[in-house]
Design goal:
The structure holds 2 protein chains of 2 kinds. By secondary structure, chain A is mostly helical. Chain A has one domain: Orthogonal Bundle (ABC transporter involved in vitamin B12 uptake, BtuC), CATH 1.10.3470.10. Chain A is 72% helix and 3% strand. Chain A has 15 helices and 2 strands. Chain A has a two-stranded antiparallel sheet with strand order 1-2. In chain A, helix 13 crosses helix 15 and helix 14 packs across helix 15. Chain A is globular. The two termini of chain A are 35 Å apart. Chain B contains 9 helices and 12 strands. In chain B, helix 5 runs parallel beside helix 6. The longest helix of chain B has 18 residues. A 6-stranded mixed β-sheet of chain B has the order 6-7-8-3-9-10, with helices on both faces. Chain B has a 4-stranded antiparallel β-sheet with strand order 2-1-4-5, with helices on one face. Chain B has a two-stranded antiparallel sheet with strand order 11-12. Chain B is globular and about 70 Å long. By secondary structure, chain B is an alpha/beta fold. Classes of the chains: A mainly alpha, B alpha/beta. At the A-B interface, helix 1, strand 2, helix 10 and helix 11 of A face helix 2, strand 6, helix 3 and helix 4 of B.
Chain lengths: 359, 271
Amino acid sequence: MSSPVRAGPVHGAVRPGGGSLVLRRGAVSVVVRPRALAVGLVLLVLLLLTAAVSLSVGDFPVPLRELVQVLRGAGTGGQEFVVLDVRLPRVLCGLLVGAALGLAGALTQAVARNPLASPDVLGVTAGASAAAVAVIVLGAPLGVGLPVAALAGGLATAAVVFLLAARGGVAGVRLVLVGIGVTAVLQAVISYLLLRADVSQAGAALVWLTGSLSGRGWTQVLIAGVAVGGLLPPALLLTRPVAVLQFGDDTARGLGVRTARLRGAVVLLAVALAALASAAAGPIAFVALAAPQVALRLARTPGLPLTLSALVGALLVAVSDLLARRLLAPTDLPVGVVTAVLGAPFLLWLLARASGGGR
Amino acid sequence: MSRLRAQDLDLAYGGRAVVRGLSVDVPDFQVTVIVGANACGKSTLLRGLSRLLAPQAGRVLLDGRAIDAMRTRDVARTLGLLPQSPTAPEGLTVGDLVGRGRSPHQRWFAQWSESDEQAVVEALRRTGTEELAGRPVDELSGGQRQRVWIAMTLAQGTDLLLLDEPTTFLDLAHQVEVLDLVADLNARDGRTVVMVLHDLNQACRYADHLIAMRDGGVHAQGRPEEVITEQLVREVFGLEARVLPDPVTGTPMVLPLSTRQRRPQPPGLTG
């Protein structure tokens, strides 16, 4: 219908995202955003580098060139113990927990249509924290381990928040207010438990409450691995409807999205991811909040990029834990201290740049 | 024959009945305009017709099928909807926004087909927004923004278009621009249009079929010339008015009477 003269320039301009490439073969077509792809590759390289350095440095340094040998099982006994049994689970746990938190944050922010939303609002981390502190201070009932208790606490609290807020729908202000209320109650419980704990218990509880990867083993790797391996694929299948959901409910429904069902599914995924991440490493601050916004600004995609949010989250936690281990070595800081110190100013800088520079 | 019909429709918000026992057939290939006083249920009716609001009783039929029983995606391929004051994520470009109109036609393995591209190019062209394709939506003027949203609805490629107060917050020139575009979409492309408008004179100019609502029901419907009388304006809006032929189009023109017909002239300025 359009004249050939006109079709030329318009043709390229209407492709999604301006600079995107469209690959087509028959009925199959895929949109590739070169910028997002490049950002993803750079993040992967940085992740590998950070992981390698993390495995290498420490009180017992293993030179980078010997690392490959050790990983293949050809190192000395001492090297294998330090790298494979101590550092590797910690590094993997950090990467997986960071990815889970970044993804949980992106899903929550997309559903809430609010860049300041995070799974914490739903009471997940407060519930996990209260359960974990209870186990630390009161001892484990029925031999339940700390991660299991934290996971159960997180999921149970989210369920309570949903039940109390059920009439307002999962996106409403009601949900946020109920979440804040339940979180406040749980904070009181945590304070009470800390007050009646002895000093060493209280110290351990505080480290857990900050979020720490210290001493994490293969159990925690498994928990975080279940989160990322089991929940990333279904989240990715929802990428396109979630992008439409960011237009608001009426428009999204007009465009054929079953909004209520989708919201429920997305919030459930975010809650499960955050609960599993908390169970593995405690409530690491700021990652779920900052990672999606950082990923969005790096990739300049039209909606929050889910995979890139996971990668940014993984990198944020991996770098933070490396710093946490080495900054005041031999003192091992909780990683949550570093994520907060690193993440907060970075996000503030991004926000200031976005509004000041007129985009 | 009407592709979109409501039968004995009851619609409610949070238990409060807004539309009661309403039946209406939307005439195909025509522009239908819904008018009425504030809170008479006109936007609610549009939400019911577009399946945004599930009926308490009665049903909406789309191509003879109950719209609630249809798949959301199938509805979205037949009926396009522009909600009142829609919002886009910050920084989204016009091209991306209009491209989203294709989502009911897309799958994860078919993300941008040639027909998607053609539909978007055509939607931008029809609304005169090709030059804006690379611009962020939040930088546009009100009139441009409304045209871009209409382009998104057009890209959806539906025969039926439902527009909820498409002229809200626009100045007069942009109101006319948007309404001319809507009229053109009906006249040249044969799309069936249903829209809610506040301005009675604009409704009379652009409607083939006018539905005047009062208290959640249809008070009168038909061609504007048949519907808009001084008595109807009194009954529907509670307003005394004269109805004269519009000197430009010949359609009814409503001139409200006021108890204070003109400002008192300051002394010394007469003549």
